[in-house]
């Protein structure tokens, strides 16, 4: 169950991820849209397309889904749960920094690899599974167009994250 503390402080959030959200959540999701837009533009300008197309695609899906939540002031709770996925990004980015610094054969890299995979399972795979389940169970409460966007978003994000998990596992543990 994602963010149990948040659900304890705002019990309506676990029942209604469409219209219920805690104070500041809308601003957090709006700032996140800005971050994803900035990162998207940065990648377009500073990386080769063949190196970044997956992340550009990921960012596009997030920008659309979070953008809908921001504009409609609905689904902010759902977007808030989706932001749990980004907790793992800390360790993914640290991994990249350690790779660029050529520190692959260090205890720090090894420890980060273990934490990265652990947080990946908890904050990416489990959260996406929970979100997919919630969307399916609440399909009658969500308008068809929004349900379609959410379903397509989850159908894109889940396989992308499973593939990335496999790549991380293969790269860091089965070399």
UniProtKB/TrEMBL annotation:
Keywords: Membrane, Transmembrane, Transmembrane helix. Residues 1-175 form the TLC domain. It is found in: Membrane. Its main location: membrane. One of its GO terms (biological process) is phospholipid homeostasis. Pfam families: TRAM_LAG1_CLN8. Signal peptide: none annotated. The keyword Transmembrane applies. The chain crosses the membrane at residues 53-72, 78-94, 114-135, 147-169. It is a multi-pass membrane protein. InterPro entries: TLC-dom (IPR006634), TLCD (IPR050846). GO terms for cellular component: plasma membrane. This is TLCD2 protein. It comes from Geococcyx californianus (Greater roadrunner). The gene is Tlcd2.
């Amino acid at each position: 169950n994602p963010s149990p503390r948040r659900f304890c402080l705002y019990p309506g959030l676990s029942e209604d991820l469409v219209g219920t959200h805690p104070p500041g959540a809308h601003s957090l999701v709006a700032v996140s849209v800005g971050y994803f837009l900035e990162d998207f533009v940065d990648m377009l300008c500073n990386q080769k397309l063949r190196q970044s197309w997956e992340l550009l695609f990921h960012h596009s899906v997030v920008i659309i889904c979070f953008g809908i939540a921001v504009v409609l002031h609905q689904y902010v709770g759902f977007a808030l749960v989706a932001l749990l996925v980004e907790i793992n990004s800390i360790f993914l980015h640290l991994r990249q920094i350690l790779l660029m610094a050529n520190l692959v054969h260090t205890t720090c890299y090894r420890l980060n690899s273990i934490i990265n995979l652990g947080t990946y399972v908890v904050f990416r795979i489990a959260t996406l599974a929970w979100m997919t389940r919630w969307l399916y169970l609440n399909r009658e409460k969500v308008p068809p167009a929004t349900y379609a966007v959410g379903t397509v978003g989850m159908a894109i994000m889940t396989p992308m994250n499973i593939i990335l998990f496999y790549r991380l596992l293969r790269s860091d543990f089965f070399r």
